[in-house]
Amino acid sequence: MNIFSRRFRAFVMLLAPCLFLAGMLYLQSQTVQPASAPAAIPVSTTDWGLSFQTEGAAPIGNATAEDLAKYNAYYLGDTSQKIIYLTFDCGYENGCTEQILDALKKHNAPAAFFVVGNMIETAPDIVRRMAAEGHIVGNHTYHHPNMSAISDQAAFQKELDSLAALYKETVGQDLPMYYRPPQGKYSTENLKQAQALGYKTVFWSLAYVDWYVDKQPTAEQAYAKLLPRIHDGAIVLLHSTSKTNAEILDDLLTKWEDMGYTFASLDQLPC
């Protein structure tokens, strides 16, 4: 090793402790910043959803029947009997609802029709027929907004009260106290708000994609969803705007009857 290398090595050995000490003093001089707390998570919209595990068995909802019951809310009826609760969402009239009513009358099957303001305004005679033939007419709100975005109780109540007032003016009866959240969007706060107003919130345990008027399923496609997935205590959601539903309902009800099912009104939901 030459003289230059020896001197350089000695220099580094003398300098290293100094650098280490300087680094430690620098670190001690710094103020440690605590990690920032996570932002508060706002109450979020929940889309009602189902998971079918076993053919012929009730699906699992994204809230249990027991949890929903705390807020007078349901997605299943009496699962100890072969009972079906038929419900229809009615956003507007496009020529299908009377055929649906005819099929229900033929089978002596009660149903619930969840209507919005437009349905009552544009098809009052059909809404009056629903009530006259013993069906429940439920509250689907006046304007069909995302109700989970409404946190103010007064604004929430106005959507329901406006529809109820229009129904009474049109039919001459009080609107039955059943509520279905538009698009299935809800929050725990919504369930509390509806309960405070005296409503039962009604979700569903069986539905299929029947609401695209310009892309209606075939009868075979409808049966493929509605027959194997039917189950005891099912609350079935169909749309009254569906041409397919209007065309198959008579036969569909017959098929369900052949499977041993009967039809019940939401008034017969277990408390």
What features would you describe in this structure?
This protein is α/β, with parallel strands linked by helices and 271 residues long. It has one domain: TIM Barrel. Helix content is 40%, strand content 15%. The strands form 4 sheets. Strands 5, 6, 7, 11 and 12 form a 5-stranded parallel beta sheet that branches. Strands 4-10-8 form a 3-stranded parallel beta sheet. Strands 1-9 form a two-stranded antiparallel sheet. Helix 3 (97-106) links the parallel strand 5 (83-90) and strand 6. Helix 3 runs parallel beside helix 9 (243-258). The longest helix is centred in the N-terminal third of the chain and has 27 residues, at 3-29. Residues 1-43 have low confidence and may be disordered.
* Share in helix: 40-55%
Give the SSE string. Answer: HEEEHEEHEHHEHEEHEHEHE
Kindly give the count of domains. 1
Runs with pLDDT <50, length 5+?
Answer: 1-43
* Main sheet record: 5 strands, parallel
What fold name stands as the CATH topology? TIM Barrel
What coarse outline follows from CA principal-axis ratios?
A: globular
Strand content: 5-15%
Based on DSSP secondary structure assignment, what is the total number of beta strands? Answer: 12
Look at the structure and give the mean pLDDT.
87
What's the architecture, going by CATH?
Alpha-Beta Barrel
Tell me the span between the first and last alpha carbons. 95 Å
What is the subunit organization of this protein? single chain
Number of helical segments with 4 or more residues? 9
